[in-house]
Every structure is written in C-alpha cells, then in structure tokens.
Prior knowledge:
alpha/beta; 17 helices; binds tryptophan
Amino acid sequence: MNASIPAARRFLTGITTTGTPHLGNFVGSIRPSxxxxxxxxxxxxxxxxxxxxxxxxxxxxxxxxxTLEIAASWLxxxxxxxxxxxxxxxxxxxxxxxxxLLTCVTGKxxxxxxxxxxxxxxxxxxxxxDADADVTAGLFMYPVLMGADILMFKATHVPVGRDxxxxxxxxxxxxxxxxxxxxxxxxxxxxxxxxxxxxxPGLDGRKMSKSYDNTIPLFASKDQLKKLIAxxxxxxxxxxxxxxxxxxxxxxxxxxxxxxxxxxxxRQAFADGISWKDAKASLFDRIDRDIAPMRERYEKLVxxxxxxxxxxxxxxxKARSRATPLMRELREAVGLRTLGTATRQIPKKSEKTxxxxxxxxxxxxxxxxxxxLGADGSLLLQSEGFAAPREAAQxxxxxxxxxxxxxxxxxxxxxxxxxxxxDEVNDALKSFVSSK
Length: 436
Ligand code: TRP
C-alpha cells in the first residue's frame, strides 16, 4: 500500500531543550550520535524537542536559550546539517497534527501506565494528595507527542536510554493500531539501546546529572573547566601513595576521553602514586585537547544566532519535505478529505469488522510479512519474513484455499499467535473458502 517504507536503517533522536549540555551528555549522547551520523549509509534525524520542553519548563527565556545552546553544541561537536536532517520540532506543524491522529488511536489506559506519569501519580498518592495533583495533560500526553516525532519520519531505529524503552514500545503500538485501522502507513520503530555507552560520573562521583547539580558544562571556559575539575571528589591518599582506579570518578572521566594507551598510562600513574593535583592537571589537558576546537566553534555559533536560525530553517524545510506528503496521505486515510471527490459508500460496521483478514506489510528489516487477523482484529497467525512480497502472497493464497493442509506443512514460516488454538485459526481460514 505504501511504497515509501524504508528498507534501510533510519535513526532519529530528540533532545529536549531544557538546560545546558554537560560532559555527560557529550559522552553519552552527542559524541556517539555524531559518530554514527558520519557512518556510510546512515540516514539520521536529529531534532530539538522544544514542544517536549514546555512540559517541564515554563520560563520562555530558558527554553529559547537552551534551544540556542543545544543547537550550537551539536553543530560544534561535528554534526553536519548537510548529511543529516537537523531541525526544531516546533517548526514542523505536521507533528502536532499527527499527535492528534495518534491520540485518537491510543488507549487512555496505556498512557495511565507510562512511567513518568505513573511516577507523578505514585508520588501524589504517597503524599496523600489527589492522584493527578499538579499533573498536566501535557505530561500525560508526552508519549503520544514522542510517538508522532518518530512515526512522522518513519524512523526504524531510535537510540535511547533504558528509561525511554517504554516510549518506543508505545510508538510501535500506535503505529500498529493505526495501520490496522487505516492501512500500512506507519513504520513501527525499534529502540536501540546503547549498552556500551558509559554514564559519566559527576563531580561528586554520582552519575553526572543536572538533578544532582554535579555537572561540568560541555563548553565551560578553560578557567571554569580547570576549577570544576579541581572540585572532583578524590580520597585522602597522599602523593606517592598508590591510588585506586576502581571507583575513581577522575579516572573514569579521563578514560572516556582517552585512547587505550593513554588510559593504560594513567592506570600505571595511579599505581605509581601520582598526586591528585597532577592527575587533575592531566585530566584537564586531556579533556581540553578534545574540547578546545569545539569550544571555539561553539562560541562563534552562539554569537551568531541568526546564522543558527538559518541552519534550523533549512533543516525544517528538509524535514517538512517528508512530513507534508505523509501527513497528506494520513489525512486522506482517516477521512479528513476534501468534498470535491464523490463520497464513497460508507462501509457497514459489520462489513468492516466481521470477517477475518490477511494483512501484508514490510518491516524495518526490509522483509515482507503477513498476519491473519480475526474478525475482532485480534492476531491469529504471524508469518516469518519473506525476501519477496510474491512469496508472502502465494502462501496467503494457499492458506485461503486449503487452510488446514497448508498450515500443517508451513509450520516453519507461519505461527499461531501466543494463546491462540489451532482450531481457531482453522475456523478463520475456512471463512475465506466459504466467502468465495
Ligand atoms: N523523551 C526524550 C528524552 O527525554 C526526548 C525525545 C522527544 C525523543 N521526542 C523523541 C527521543 C523522539 C527520541 C525520539 O530524552
């Protein structure tokens, strides 16, 4: 139905525009994302999630400043807006429009179970307050807006931290539900969990995080960087005493910037009793070696906001060249149509839902799949992936003609859904014969 479903990997990452990027953001997100975007064949979308920022922040100046700083940070860190699509969420009016279509296919109960919302409710209940005290509908709808971000661009892979996996699963469900109702328009995404990316410790040894107030801003000035590094917690061992690398925030931060050789040398220096003062000086030098050229680019970018704005506008044009046509298709699909064309006959509710049906679709892995849905839309049968759509179609035809025998001989490529009895599948398949 939809020829433009991508077979290749398409990555998408959103960055909420609250706060100033710190070294932990750089090591955990910016640096690996920029590296991935430079890889051959990767198609990547990066956007400033400023609609999401409104959920957490009601200071307009702060939203604007953070948008500027985050955009400048990513570009200064090497993101090439000519190779990727880099845009600001609020420049894409199709995103809130898609949010509404998805809102209408998302169960309220599903959103009730979203972690962030549930955490607020639990906290309120623990404090004896009304469950929804101080909870905005924006927080409640967060996962739907995020689903629209992802589905708008048919992203196949979304690199996220563990805390965001649930949101990606919800986006998958929204895509599947929408497709089931209206046809195969949306691509269910997969979460890409970066296991290897270490979380950086902060000044106090806990995870570097704005909420612990233990961060080192990515583009702190040299002096500030030196001062902050001087404040990293160490133990009381004296110069000449061997030091533990295990559990040392200083060592871990060093390691996340250093080569294997440099790390080995530092490990030796710890064993040899390097003073904390010298270790901190080495850490400063190592970080600054990487950051200094970026800092220069960053300062230049921040001092020319209208140039940054131009870059974002060019990104928005690129993003909208994809979003606008899809949104047009989706509007048509759900029935938001012009009246110029003759109104088609309205299907009876029973016609629409009373018969089992086969659905064919293509997944992010590029293979062709089909499934059999019962009269109530529940999943009965699921196929493996086929290299060619014809193979899937031929098997469907055989299942429709001679369900029981075909099913018995195709156990390696089609499976009954969990908890579905074989008889139920056979009964559904019979309806295809009798309906001919
Ligand atoms: N929720 C993400 C975060 O807090 C930000 C985000 C918004 C996002 N929309 C997204 C991430 C879409 C990935 C894809 O980090």
